[in-house]
């Protein structure tokens, strides 16, 4: 007789599938991306485009492959008219994540290969999404601010062009470097909630844009990608380093979750945090503003001593983006601009070897009730 499957709330510890894309090496506290240590990629000076290529094509590109990949991304730097019209018609108060979710969905009905789920079409659609998501973020931001859109620049890489389109002026090299590192660190992270959600959608043979829309929707929650915005709001509420320890103690006392801390997989520190702190340091040195990092450090010391809980990537990323003068509601959309690469790799992997994802559940409701017509209830 087969044993009844065990139930794990939140699917914690459950092996829900197979993937050759990435895994968290808990023992060595590293993130393995197709065989590479993610930190080797940031420390070795990789561009986000190289990492996106690695995710979509199984290995790092050589110089010719990288040039062709970057060209393909540059050629796709334009938005279809219906998407531009949708963005311009949205209420100016719309949260940029809601707008981006709708933009990704509408890019689907404008894509000539929308319903083709072959491997080759999926890779092409992934490239188009990678190129267009930063444009949708920038277009939404400029429109909400009542500013003219900024045309993308062909001579800039993805990180630099994103900063350029948001602000309309040449980004400083330190800003481009910090943004590039954050995009690499955000790009992929195993069977996290949004990736799993995207894979579930893909497993029904819903198309790439549908699955990525699901990913965007799932990432937005404050327990997942939305934590980078929530962590910055928290640091602003704390206000000064002097206030940080007491604020955290008080929040813990009232059983509040401290945003930018904790992780389902990492229990001895998020492997991505040191690289993000280093990138944040570049920004602090250039701007001279150290208040938010100090608050984050005191919150970290307090969380470690009181709860043994480490910060996750969203904490140093939050003060780094803030130091780059990026409006807080754009933090999670920028996470999307990066994670599209990981989601797309998972959608491709799922559909290349598909089986519908359809788990069971324990029923906890009533049974045996007697139906009565509505006029007798
Ligand atoms: N603040 C206070 N307590 C916490 C926190 C936190 N940030 N994280 C975990 N805990 C406590 C939790 O209350 C629980 O305590 P107890 O056993 O006394 O009830 C214990 O630690 C275990 O936590 P859990 O909620 O069972 O852990 P989980 O694996 O279900 O949740 C998490 C992981 C990320 C949802 C959670 O740590 C959290 O809510 N963090 C804050 C939001 C956040 O920063 N999210 C970003 C996650 S990483 C990057 C990303 O995906 O975007």
Description of the structure:
There is one protein chain. With 377 residues, the chain is an all-alpha fold. It folds into two domains: 24-170 and 187-220 and 338-352, Citrate Synthase, domain 1, CATH 1.10.580.10; 227-323, Cytochrome p450-Terp, domain 2. Helices cover 57% and strands 3% of the residues. A three-stranded antiparallel sheet has the order 1-2-3. The longest helix is centred in the middle third of the chain and has 26 residues, at 119-144. Bound molecules: carboxymethyl coenzyme *A (CMC). Carboxymethyl coenzyme *A is lined by residues 10, 192, 223-225, 227, 257-264, 307, 309, 312-314. Residues 10, 192, 223-225, 227, 257-264, 307, 309, 312-314 line the site of carboxymethyl coenzyme *A.
Protein topology:
Blueprint: E1 22-25, E2 30-33, E3 36-37, H1 38-43, H2 48-57, H3 63-75, H4 81-89, H5 96-110, H6 119-144, H7 158-167, H8 173-186, H9 193-203, H10 208-219, H11 227-238, H12 241-253, H13 273-287, H14 291-307, H15 314-323, H16 331-352
Antiparallel strand pairs: 1-2, 2-3
Helix pairs in contact: 2-16, 3-6, 4-5, 4-6, 5-6, 5-10, 6-7, 6-16, 7-8, 8-13, 8-16, 9-10, 9-16, 10-16, 11-15, 12-14, 13-15
The structure holds carboxymethyl coenzyme *A.
User: Major sheet, described briefly?
Assistant: 3 strands, antiparallel
What integer is the average pLDDT?
96
Order of helices and strands: EEEHHHHHHHHHHHHHHHH
- Structural Rg: 22 Å
Q: Please give the CATH class of the largest domain.
A: Mainly Alpha
> What is the CATH H-level superfamily of the largest domain?
Citrate Synthase, domain 1
């Amino acid at each position: 007789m087969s044993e009844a499957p065990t139930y794990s709330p939140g699917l914690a510890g459950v092996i829900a599938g197979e993937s050759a894309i990435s895994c968290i090496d808990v023992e060595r506290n590293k993130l393995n991306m197709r065989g590479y240590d993610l930190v080797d990629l940031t420390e070795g000076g990789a561009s986000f485009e190289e990492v996106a290529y690695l995710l979509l094509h199984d290995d790092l590109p050589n110089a010719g492959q990288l040039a062709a990949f970057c060209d393909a991304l540059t050629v796709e730097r334009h938005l279809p008219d219906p998407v531009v019209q949708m963005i311009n018609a949205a209420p100016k108060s719309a949260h940029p994540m809601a707008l981006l979710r709708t933009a990704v969905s509408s890019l689907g009905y404008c894509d000539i290969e929308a319903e083709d789920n072959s491997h080759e079409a999926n890779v092409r659609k992934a490239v188009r999404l990678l190129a267009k998501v930063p444009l949708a973020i920038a277009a939404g931001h400029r429109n909400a601010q009542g500013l003219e859109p900024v045309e993308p620049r062909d001579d800039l890489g993805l990180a630099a062009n994103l900063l350029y389109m948001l602000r309309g002026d040449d980004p400083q090299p330190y800003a481009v470097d910090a943004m590039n590192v954050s995009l690499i660190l955000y790009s992929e992270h195993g069977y996290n909630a949004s990736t799993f959600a995207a894979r579930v959608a893909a497993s029904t043979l819903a198309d790439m844009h549908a699955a990525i829309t699901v990913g965007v929707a799932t990432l937005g929650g404050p327990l997942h990608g939305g934590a980078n915005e929530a962590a910055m709001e928290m640091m602003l509420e704390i206000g000064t380093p002097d206030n940080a320890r007491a604020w955290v103690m008080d929040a813990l006392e009232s059983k509040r979750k401290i945003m930018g801390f904790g992780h389902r997989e990492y229990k001895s520190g998020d492997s991505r945090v040191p690289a993000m702190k280093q990138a944040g340091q570049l920004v602090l040195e250039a701007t001279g503003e150290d208040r938010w990092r100090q608050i984050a450090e005191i919150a970290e010391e307090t969380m470690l001593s009181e709860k043994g809980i480490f910060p996750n990537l969203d904490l140093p990323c939050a003060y780094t983006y803030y130091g780059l003068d990026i409006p807080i509601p754009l933090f999670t959309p920028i996470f999307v601009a990066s994670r599209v690469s990981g989601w797309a790799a998972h959608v491709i992997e799922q559909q290349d070897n598909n089986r519908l994802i359809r788990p069971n559940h324990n029923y906890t409701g009533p049974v045996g009730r007697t139906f009565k017509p509505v006029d007798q209830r």
